[in-house]
Amino acid sequence: MLNFEFKNPTKILFGKGEIARISREVPKDARILMIYGGGSIKNNGVYDQVKEALIDHDVYEFGGVPANPEYEVLINALSLIKEKNINYLMAVGGGSVIDGTKFLSAAANYDGEPWEILRNSVRTFEGEGMPFGTILTLPATGSEMNSGYVISRRETNEKLSSGGPGLFPQFSVLDPEVIRTIPKNQIVNGITDAYTHVLEQYMTAPSSADLQERIAESILISLQETAPKVLADDFNYDAAGNFMWCCTMALNGLIQKGVITDWAVHAMGHELTAYFGIDHARTLAVIAPSHYRYNFETKKGKLAQYAERVWGIKDGTLEEKAEAGIKKMEEFFHSLDIKTKLSEYTEDYKGTAERVEKAFTDRKWSGLGEYKKLTPQDAYKIVEMSY
Ligand code: NZQ
Ligand code: ZN
């Protein structure tokens, strides 16, 4: 097991009715900016619950953060933060709203041009961000209990990630009741995103970190078992709760401790969202199978372990089990009605491999993946295999 440090300071308030308790988590004299998306919270009662809970606080609002949160929109929120002397942020939404809030948390305490924080890729912000809490309305990203975020810049077709130890939420409310109003296409996105988060931290080489491996496998199995229940027409509170907690646990740092991690699927997937606007989770389902087939030799031990422990495949050689594991993964995505080929999302797919290779070369991303050896030329081949 590799050496590691682990600190996750986010307090979780889990369960029905917990939104009503948030006033205890926020300083009495805080000047709060409540940040939300395109309006789902006004239709499902979450907006009213938050306003009611914060009735004795000084609350300003910024709505309209789009999916794949945009720099051009967030910069207006930054002006409002300065104009109103805001000192506490409250994200109410899915990964996009929470990520946008993290960017604002960092940018509010950063003296330079805000986009610089995103420029040099992950973990460039070393200071303390403006404190914030989150009310999660869409389980998927794990952003509610981690310190990373992803921001898009429309004018340059960029989608870049950043983060830092001072950007964890102070608290996050996980009320499974919010899942009642999520459209099915967003629920399957959430399942697929969380599933791939586990894979990015697991599908490398077999390790000696037994507990992390078993927790990762448990999250995968729980997501597989919960999927049909959470997609059924009748709302099932316990299934919703399991789904929500799986998504949080998939990316709160725990399963990546002591092991090597990949994240190349996300790096390539983000490009597909930046070029074509494809939902984040769906880009991962496009790239992952090709990525695992392209890197079969270095990943086959873990792929076979996945096939055995997660899908119960006991027969065949190591290679046969490994390939069976990839097929099972694809079948799982298809069972959610998630397509796994780029050409099924856009007719303009030709030339995408060249674009990705050039973008990675320009950014000097010369060594992605768990061994930091995946080159822009490798990315070209993986994206081409995903057509
Ligand atoms: O904007 P509103 O009106 O709120 O509607 C949203 C949005 O249209 C809707 N929605 C959310 N909760 C709902 C609801 N509709 C009905 N009922 C509810 N309870 O769902 C739509 C999608 O929301 P969004 O926040 O965009 O989805 P998601 O949570 O999947 O976030 C995706 C973003 O997170 C980034 C992705 O790249 C993408 O930009 N990621 C962040 C990560 C992190 N911080 O750790 C890791 C991930 O890998 C990912 O990259
Ligand atoms: Zn993701």
TrEMBL record:
One of its GO terms (cellular component) is cytosol. InterPro entries: ADH_Fe/GldA (IPR001670), ADH_Fe_C (IPR056798), ADH_Fe_CS (IPR018211), BDH-like (IPR044731). CDD domains: BDH (cd08187). Pfam families: ADH_Fe_C, Fe-ADH. Residues 190-385 form the Fe-containing alcohol dehydrogenase-like C-terminal domain. Residues 9-176 form the Alcohol dehydrogenase iron-type/glycerol dehydrogenase GldA domain. GO terms for molecular function: alcohol dehydrogenase (NADP+) activity; butanol dehydrogenase (NAD+) activity; metal ion binding; methylglyoxal reductase (NADPH) (acetol producing) activity. Keywords: Oxidoreductase. Signal peptide: none annotated. Belongs to the iron-containing alcohol dehydrogenase family. This is NADP-dependent alcohol dehydrogenase. It comes from Chryseobacterium shigense.
